[in-house]
């Protein structure tokens, strides 16, 4: 058992000691071991540490057993990692209030791929339109090999997670309480299903109950883990707007689905759109914005003298769908909608193929959402 991990688990369990206070303690004492060896006088010398927090550290054994928490995690199949662990996401480690530890159930590997994570969040009381939009975009994103991130709440969150699960694609659920306190209870089966291909994660001890304070806190994790945040139906006081604002603070892209102007749950999205969020009608809008950020729409490199002139003569090791799309583009510039029509593939499959082909510099995106071969 990693002694420093157990010490971090303990510090994470103490009331009044959050990530920012932890940062101050580590800066002052250098490591967790020195924190627990410090006297009350020494603890109080650390900026931001008051008498209550000092007493919690000094007398933690009366109320908390980090060793028992670690054993409980082992029995439940939950992995606990601190900031030093290789599985700890770089995108999360970079924020000022990164969680002291992360509890993970499922596949921890998927936490590493921030570039292809999209958060889909919204109201707990969506309309049929909102549910359909969330499902459509989450489905296309999953088919394009993006990972859907959300908060396992009722409504939009549930619709987004379910779409990925039905396709047996990974999705990440960030909880507002401990993994042993799934909320809402109606989503207990969904949480188990998510663990088959994705992961549920939390910064809270296993049996910690969620409350009004913890849900806004978990939103920063959703934003930090994601390259882009999409809001689908949200009122002006929705927690989804907190997630969107945090995403902007972290330099992420924010997207919003427009709704009816007389519907209260559209007002949050419309506010975001007025502030500069990208209007989103389908996953194509997010996909194209993603390409522009990567600089995919660029001039192709000059043809080398030893290149073969015809696509058929090059051993590209493309799959059948990629070959089909390359064949369609032989005729010249083709609009993305026409590619979907001619290929008879699902939109998500087409977008995934286009992204892979662009990565290999075999095709390029042109103005007007058209594609052409680079040769």
Strands of the widest sheet, in order across it, are: 1-2-6-5-4-3-7-8-9
Biggest sheet, open or closed, and with what strands and sense? Answer: 9 strands, mixed
Element-level helix/strand string: HHHHHHEHEEHEHEHEHEHEHEHHEHHEE
Q: Please tally the helical runs, counting DSSP H or I stretches of 4 or more residues.
A: 17
Reading off the top of the CATH hierarchy, the class of the largest domain is best stated as Alpha Beta
What's the architecture of the largest domain, going by CATH?
3-Layer(aba) Sandwich
Task: State the shape.
Answer: elongated
CATH fold label of the largest domain: Rossmann fold
Proportion of beta-strand residues: 5-15%
Q: What would the average pLDDT be, to the nearest integer? A: 89
């Amino acid at each position: 058992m990693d002694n420093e991990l157990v010490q971090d688990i303990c510090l994470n369990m103490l009331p009044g000691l959050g990530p920012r206070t932890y940062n101050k303690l580590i800066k002052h004492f250098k490591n967790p071991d020195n924190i627990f060896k410090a006297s009350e006088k020494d603890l109080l010398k650390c900026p931001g540490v008051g008498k209550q927090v000092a007493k919690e550290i000094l007398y933690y054994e009366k109320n908390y057993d980090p060793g028992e928490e670690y054993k409980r995690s082992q029995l439940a199949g939950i992995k606990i990692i601190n900031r030093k662990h290789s599985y700890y996401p770089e995108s999360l480690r970079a924020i000022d209030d990164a969680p002291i530890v992360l509890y993970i159930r499922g596949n921890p590997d998927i936490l590493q791929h921030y570039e292809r994570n999209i958060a889909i969040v919204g109201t707990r009381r969506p309309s049929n339109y909102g549910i359909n939009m969330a499902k459509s975009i989450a489905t296309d994103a999953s088919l394009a090999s993006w990972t859907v991130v959300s908060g396992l709440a009722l409504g939009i969150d549930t619709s987004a997670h379910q779409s990925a699960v039905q396709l047996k694609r990974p999705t990440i659920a960030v909880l507002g309480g401990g993994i042993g306190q799934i909320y809402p209870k109606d989503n207990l089966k969904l949480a188990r299903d998510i663990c088959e291909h994705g992961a549920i994660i939390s910064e809270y001890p296993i049996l910690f109950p969620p409350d009004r304070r913890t849900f806004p806190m978990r939103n920063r994790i959703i934003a930090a883990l994601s390259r882009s945040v999409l809001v689908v139906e949200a009122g002006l006081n929705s927690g989804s707007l907190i997630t969107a604002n945090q995403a902007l603070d972290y330099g992420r892209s924010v997207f919003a689905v427009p709704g009816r102007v007389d519907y209260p749950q559209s007002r949050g999205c419309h506010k975001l759109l007025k502030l500069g969020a990208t209007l989103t009608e389908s996953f194509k809008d997010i996909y194209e914005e993603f390409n522009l950020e990567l600089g995919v729409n660029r001039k192709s490199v000059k043809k080398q003298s030893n290149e073969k002139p015809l696509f058929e003569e090059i051993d590209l090791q493309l799959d059948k769908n990629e070959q089909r799309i390359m064949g369609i583009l032989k005729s010249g510039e083709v609009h993305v909608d026409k590619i979907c029509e001619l290929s008879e593939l699902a939109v998500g499959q087409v977008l995934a193929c286009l992204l892979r082909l662009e990565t290999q510099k075999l095709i390029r995106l042109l103005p007007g959402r058209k594609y052409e071969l680079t040769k």
